[in-house]
Amino acid sequence: MAIHPAPPNTGIIFVKQAGEQTLACPATIQYLRQTDHCTTLQADDFQVQTVEHILSALAGLEIDNAYVEVQGNEIPAADGSAAPFVEILTECGLIAQDETRTYIKIVQPIHVEDEHRSIEVRPAALPRMSYFIDFPHPLIQQQHYEHSCTPREFSRNIAGARTFAFRHEVEYLWSRGLGLGGSLHNTVVFSESALVNEEPLRFSDECVRHKILDLIGDLSLIGFPIIGHFQAKRAGHLLHTQLVQAILDNPDKWIMLNAENTQKSDILHRATATSSSRPLPELEPAFLSV
Ligand SMILES: [Zn+2]
Fold first, then answer.
1. Does the pLDDT of residue 265 top 80, yes or no?
2. Which CATH number belongs to the domain containing residue 200 in this structure?
3. What is the structure's pLDDT at 120?
4. What is the pLDDT of residue 275?
5. Measured in angstroms, how far is the CA atom of residue 126 from the centroid of ligand 1?
6. What element of type H or E holds 208?
């Protein structure tokens, strides 16, 4: 994977060189294909799997515009967190672009639920996330985390939290040929009562922090930063992305801030733009490769 600079108002676009052609898939909700165990995007025949952690790193650092060039069909798992991406992005340096940043500001609550799971976003002065999980495992149990969405908080407290799974799930997935990139190097695996990995947990509440990491990546599929207070209970990728859709479906419940150059319809358009509607410029040299 390599990350290239992109001009203002590009958003995040996954690209792949295929002979003479450059295939492109914008990181927006329209291209979402699967939310089962990982987030997959697909435009025509170009599919990119496991995009949630690189999207989280980009959104967590408030990077609005980039081309993410991939060679295979899957984003490198790295260590199962967003920390390696944050490290190289921070090392390489970021610039402020000469364009006002447009925000979606929630003015009325939007709620999505499914039996015991729920997620909602309420009006708030600043972006904030509260997450609650509840697993009947001695090392997890009930965990609650409050995240104030700044790049500094993200880098320090969220980016390092790794993917977690239970041994019976991992064995099942691996036996079905799924999650092939998964290993103890990039997944925290819990047995019935203990941790399988030799490396200890990075945070005692690493699981709920990883849920916030995933939420940040999934919410970025709306294409613009959102000002609101997100409150999730036992949620996951599916519910996260259903909330993104619910926000788009309820344009009367949000307004736009700093929108001199953007209309509400642009937000809806960016989230649903087709890949062919945006001509790709020549890529500038990659600053980063993983
Ligand atoms: Zn994840």
1. no
2. 3.30.1700.10
3. 97
4. 47
5. 24
6. helix 206-219
Compute the distance from residue 228 Cα to the ligand 1 centre, in Å: 22
Structural domain boundaries, residue 171: 2-289
Residue 203 burial by CB count (10 A; 0-12/13-18/19+): exposed, middle or buried?
Answer: middle
Question: How remote is the CA of residue 5 from the centroid of ligand 1, in Å?
Answer: 25
Which of these is catalytic: 53, 237, 240, 269? 237
pLDDT of residue 32: 93
Q: Is residue 209 packed enough to be buried (19+ CB in 10 Å), middle (13-18) or exposed (0-12)?
A: buried
Identify whether 269 is a catalytic site residue: no
Provide the domain count of the chain: 1
C-alpha separations of 235 from 22, 127, 218, 225 in Å: 36, 19, 12, 20
Distance from the CA of 57 to the center of ligand 1, in angstroms?
A: 11
Q: Where is average pLDDT lowest: 104-108, 143-147, 223-227, 263-267?
A: 263-267
Tokens 């997100």: give the residue.
230
